[in-house]
């Protein structure tokens, strides 16, 4: 990668305005694989346990112990490769990356360098304006996570928690194909969608299950050579990633326009304070002295294993989206969102299949369900209203048992746990749509009596204004019926009475 | 009884001639009385040994005894032993007690053997003289002026001095065969992958292999029967059936073709050592074997290749000794870097530091291709040389070392001279082959062993040849008069 500093190319019309700069972004993403045990030992990978309770002799790097590869981690990496249409390297090799740090017990990280398990692949992303773009994946390799250093509350000393040490990761490296923060975030979300659909990662970003390193450089538009890049490490939310990119792009442009040079360095971004700082420059970088790990044999992947895993592959988000549009008649935008998350897609499909109405199911999942989940900050898998329950509700809307307005009321009751399904709530709370002419008529009469002045005003008004004024009476009548009256019948009967 | 072989002691235990408790006590008494002269043990586990001996006798009483039940053994101090200190001959592990048991010692324990203690060794198995131990040099029981060889010098010396019935050793570049040769005992380095490395503190992972060090080939067969086999905790251990290594000990050697590599008999080989090897080969001819000259053209390259690969792996393997979680930590570290630097500088000995530096250099950016990669290419050439030779012969024979044991201190200031003396053993590790040393007489008043090299996984062939030789010679029965 050639690296010309834009400042070497200064011209008479310097400085350039912001829209004359082009941003170039490449990502490295660490994805924790959802294996039950670690990549080279039998210790559990569960999150949140007491420090150092989930680290065995192998994870602690005690003398004489040896690593044994977790075959499930290999399978998951292969599935990722298949999911991004990448070549799987049938001979791949673990190497040692040597450096000293207290949370790295062996003094080396076992990773892959020259022969990674996943070769080149690609991911399609959809942008807000509906356009699509391809981001190329350079490769993805398997490696072990390090432990954590805890720098607070140890009387001036540092604590080490090795529970995370040895957790399997795939590190995914993209080509520098993204041109702005929006593309980078769209890519990150798409990747999240791919790994959760594949079931190889729990996608819990706040627990560090996916961590993004962002390589950013800028160059004057039209210039071919890349500018000097910086790497901002360990971003664990889409929001922080976007903010960190915007901040870094601005810093680099300001720096160059002020006559400075971007130096190649590793940076840290603090999402809570929205501050970034330099961590180390290229000169301070370690010589990692990579060499093939002599404790592990090369991983050989047989065709039969590849075929077996291929047969186990779930429908990927892109295929799912296409099917939602073509078979279920959803809009591109709705299909994109619903297919983006495995749990959401499954929820939607269950509700659509049982109720037989994909359009209504889509509206409800993207509407009331999403709204309530967000308000309570929970995931769809924790929704108190299950897909079955939603389907039952939609069925009652479709067969005219309840009005749309009452449906929301039933949903809220289901959310609160007032009943085990829509029918139970409808019965218990007497929410059936009222279609009885006598009942509606008597409600209307009450409304007209109670609002004699408005009736007079209505009748005094010219016909062209009346159609607007009738809404008031419909509203009153619906309220009197607690939303249960058939709105069409109310409208019709009101008109007849008022205009009589 | 202490002067009998392990096999004979095994039969005596089986016949009820004595108990394991008596035999174990006999060895413990000898260790107390004599090991001050040799320094072959770092730790003697007297109480544990007596306890295990009692348990072995009880087990025998129930009729559930194996050939090794009740046999007192010593283990090289790099096999992790649960609850018993494992030092690897280093200050940096002076306080290390492993919470787990190595596969080798576990299997031997399960077979009912008794652990007398942990034997002295060159620090982290780096050395050919056993002078590189934090616990002091080991002395050769035949002549306490002489080195016992290394790195399994403690194991070799204690078997030679009859301070154990047998011992475990490890061989990365000759560390079983060369001390066996210098101490006049029988030592077998199995094929790489034959014995699990789990729980064995690593020096150079792609070369390390554990094996038995005993008085006779039959003894070695009995120990290997227990030590060999697949272990799911070691990815480099092969899932391959373990034969009964005693089954073919007495097979005829009629028609066996012995290859003598001409490079093994060129300049630098002591004439008396050469004579003992040629005498031994002559015995084999009497036993019906044919002799053929073969060639290992890249033999000389085995020294530079080994002394790049082994230190490179070691530089990484030994990174975990950093003072953070176990082992020696320097006093009052100022900060993290200071803790690393001083713990390692103070905890490791000179030879270990030298090899860490060499290995770090060989793996460094810009040097990797010229050193490590090239060394790996040479390694393949050396393996090919052996494969070619084995198309013309069944077993390769030669010396283990250019001379018999040299004096303590003689080469300690000249590491390169020390490295050069490994010329006949290193290539066997680089090729992953099984190798053995059997006593073949004396040269310049000190023992000499005959080295035998077999095809991959042909330990049975080596043991057969060694056993037949020991049926017609008595070098293996001799032991130092003063012990």
State the CATH superfamily name of chain B: Amidase signature (AS) domain
> What's the total helix number of chain B?
15
Beta-strand residue percentage of chain B = 5-15%
| Rg for CA atoms of chain B | 21 Å
Number of strands of chain A: 15
What is the helical fraction of chain B, as a range of percent? 25-40%
- Could you name the ranges of chain B where pLDDT drops below 50 across 5 or more consecutive residues? none
Classify the secondary structure makeup of chain A into a structural class.
Answer: alpha+beta
Q: Report the CATH C-level class of chain B.
A: Alpha Beta
- Count of separate structural domains of chain B: 1
CATH architecture of chain B: Alpha-Beta Complex
Principal-axes shape call of chain B: globular
Give the CA-CA distance, first to last residue of chain B: 14 Å
Which structural class should the secondary elements of chain B be placed in?
alpha/beta
Strand order of the largest sheet of chain B: 1-3-2-4-6-5-10-11-9-7-8
Biggest interface goes to:
A-B, 28 and 44 residues
What this model shows, in words?
The complex is a heterodimer of chains A (500) and B (483). Residues 1-12 of chain A have low confidence and may be disordered. Chain A starts with 20 loop residues before the first strand and ends with a helix. Chain A is an alpha+beta fold and 500 residues long. In chain A, a hairpin with a 4-residue loop joins strand 12 (265-270) and strand 13. Chain A has three domains: 6-300, no CATH class; 315-428, no CATH class; 437-499, Arc Repressor Mutant, subunit A (Orthogonal Bundle). Chain A contains 16 helices and 15 strands. In chain A, strands 5-6-9-1-10-11-12-13 form an eight-stranded mixed sheet. Chain A has a three-stranded antiparallel sheet with strand order 4-3-14, with no helix packed on it. In chain A, strands 2-15 form a two-stranded antiparallel sheet. Chain B has 483 residues and is of the alpha/beta class. Chain B has one domain: Amidase signature (AS) domain (Amidase signature (AS) enzymes, Alpha-Beta Complex), CATH 3.90.1300. Chain B is built from 15 helices and eleven strands. Chain B has helices at 6-14, 20-38, 46-61, 103-110, 153-160, 177-183, 217-227, 271-286, 302-317, 336-347, 350-363, 369-389, 415-420, 423-431, 459-472, and strands spanning 41-44, 72-76, 114-119, 166-170, 186-189, 210-214, 257-261, 290-294, 395-399, 435-443, 446-453. Chain B has an eleven-stranded mixed sheet with strand order 1-3-2-4-6-5-10-11-9-7-8, with helices on both faces. In chain B, helix 5 (153-160) runs parallel beside helix 6. The longest helix of chain B is centred in the last third of the chain and has 21 residues, at 369-389. The mean pLDDT of chain B is 97.
């Amino acid at each position: 990668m050639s690296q010309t500093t834009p400042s070497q190319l200064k011209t008479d019309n310097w400085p350039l305005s912001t829209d004359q700069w082009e941003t170039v972004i490449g990502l490295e993403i660490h994805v924790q694989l959802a294996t039950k045990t670690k990549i080279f030992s039998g210790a559990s990978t569960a999150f949140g346990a007491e420090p150092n309770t989930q680290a065995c002799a192998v994870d602690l790097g005690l003398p004489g112990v040896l690593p044994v590869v977790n075959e499930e981690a290999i399978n998951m990496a292969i599935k990722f490769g298949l999911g991004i249409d990448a070549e799987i390297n049938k001979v791949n090799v673990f190497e040692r990356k040597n450096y000293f740090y207290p949370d790295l017990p062996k003094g080396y990280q076992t990773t892959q360098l020259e022969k990674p398990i996943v070769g080149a692949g690609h991911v399609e992303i959809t942008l807000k304006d509906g356009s699509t773009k391809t981001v190329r994946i350079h490769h993805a390799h398997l490696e072990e996570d390090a432990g954590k250093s805890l720098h607070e509350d140890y009387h001036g000393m540092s604590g080490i928690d090795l529970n995370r040490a040895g957790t399997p990761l795939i590190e995914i490296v993209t080509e520098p194909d993204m041109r702005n923060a929006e593309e980078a975030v769209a890519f990150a979300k798409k990747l999240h969608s791919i790994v959760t659909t594949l079931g190889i990662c729990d996608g819990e970003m706040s627990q560090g299950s996916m961590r993004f390193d962002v390589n950013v450089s800028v160059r004057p538009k039209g210039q071919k050579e890349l500018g000097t890049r910086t790497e901002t490490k360990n971003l664990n939310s889409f929001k922080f990633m976007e903010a960190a990119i915007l901040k870094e792009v601005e810093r680099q442009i300001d720096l160059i326009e002020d006559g400075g040079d971007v130096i190649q360095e590793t940076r840290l971004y603090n999402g809570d304070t929205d501050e970034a700082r330099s961590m180390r420059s290229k000169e301070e970088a370690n010589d990692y002295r990579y060499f093939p790990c002599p404790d592990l044999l090369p991983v050989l992947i047989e065709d039969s294993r590849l075929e077996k895993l291929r047969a186990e592959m779930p429908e990927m988000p892109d295929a799912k989206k296409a099917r939602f549009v073509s078979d279920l008649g959803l809009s591109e935008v709705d299909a994109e969102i619903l297919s983006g998350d495995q749990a959401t897609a499954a929820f939607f499909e269950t509700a659509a299949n049982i109720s037989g109405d994909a359009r209504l199911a889509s509206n409800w999942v993207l509407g009331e369900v999403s709204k309530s989940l967000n308000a309570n900050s929970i995931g769809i898998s924790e929704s108190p209203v299950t897909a079955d329950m939603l389907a039952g509700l939609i069925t009652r809307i479709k067969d005219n048992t309840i009005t749309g307005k009452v449906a929301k009321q039933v949903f809220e009751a289901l959310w609160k746990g007032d009943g085990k399904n829509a029918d139970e709530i409808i019965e218990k709370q007497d929410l059936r749509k009222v279609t009885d002419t006598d009942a509606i008529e008597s409600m209307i009469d009450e409304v007209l009596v109670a609002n004699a002045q408005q009736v007079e005003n209505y009748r005094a008004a010219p016909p062209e204004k009346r159609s607007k004024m009738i809404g008031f009476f419909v509203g009153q009548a619906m309220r009197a019926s607690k939303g249960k009256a058939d709105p069409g019948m109310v409208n019709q009967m009101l008109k007849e009475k008022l205009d009589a | 009884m202490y002067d009998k072989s392990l096999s004979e002691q095994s039969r005596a235990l089986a016949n009820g001639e004595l108990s394991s408790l008596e035999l174990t006590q006999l060895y413990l008494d000898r260790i107390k009385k004599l090991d001050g002269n040799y320094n072959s043990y770092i730790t003697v586990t007297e109480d544990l040994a007596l306890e295990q001996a009692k348990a072995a006798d009880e087990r025998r009483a129930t009729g559930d005894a194996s050939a090794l039940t009740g046999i007192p053994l010593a283990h090289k101090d790099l096999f992790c032993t649960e609850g018993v200190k494992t030092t690897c001959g280093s200050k940096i592990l002076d306080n290390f007690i492993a919470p787990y048991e190595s596969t080798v010692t576990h299997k031997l324990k399960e077979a009912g053997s008794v652990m007398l203690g942990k034997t002295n060794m060159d620090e982290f198995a780096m050395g050919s003289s056993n002078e590189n131990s934090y616990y002091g040099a080991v002395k050769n029981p035949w002549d306490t002026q002489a080195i016992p060889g290394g790195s399994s010098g403690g194991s070799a010396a204690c078997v030679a001095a009859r301070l154990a019935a047998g011992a475990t050793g490890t061989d990365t570049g000759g560390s079983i065969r060369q001390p066996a040769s210098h101490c006049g005992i029988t030592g077998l380095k199995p094929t790489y992958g034959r014995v699990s490395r789990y729980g064995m503190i690593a020096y150079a992972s792609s070369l390390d292999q554990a094996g038995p060090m005993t008085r006779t080939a039959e003894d070695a067969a009995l120990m290997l029967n227990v030590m060999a086999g697949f272990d799911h905790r070691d990815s480099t251990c092969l899932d391959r059936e373990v034969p009964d290594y005693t089954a073919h000990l007495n097979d005829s050697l009629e028609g066996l073709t012995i290859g003598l590599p001409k490079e093994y008999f060129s300049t630098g080989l002591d004439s008396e050592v050469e004579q003992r090897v040629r005498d031994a080969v002559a015995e084999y001819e009497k036993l019906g074997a044919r002799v053929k000259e073969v060639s290992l053209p890249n033999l000389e390259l085995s020294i530079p290749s080994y002394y790049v690969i082994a230190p490179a792996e070691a530089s990484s393997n030994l990174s975990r000794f950093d003072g953070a979680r176990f082992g020696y930590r320097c006093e009052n570290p100022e900060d993290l870097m200071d803790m690393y630097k001083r713990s390692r500088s103070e905890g490791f000995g000179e030879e270990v530091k030298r090899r860490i530096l060499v290995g770090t250099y060989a793996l460094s950016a810009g040097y990797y291709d010229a050193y490590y990669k090239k060394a790996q290419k040479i390694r393949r050439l050396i393996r090919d040389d052996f494969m070619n030779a084995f198309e013309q012969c069944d077993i390769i024979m030669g010396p283990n070392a250019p001379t018999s044991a040299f004096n303590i201190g003689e080469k300690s200031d000249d590491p390169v001279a020390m490295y050069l003396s490994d010329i006949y053993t290193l290539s066997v590790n680089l090729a992953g082959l099984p190798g053995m040393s059997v006593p073949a007489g004396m040269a310049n008043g000190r023992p000499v062993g005959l080295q035998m090299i077999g095809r991959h996984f042909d330990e049975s062939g080596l043991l057969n040849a060694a056993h037949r030789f020991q049926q017609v010679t008595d070098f293996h029965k001799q032991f130092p008069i003063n012990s």
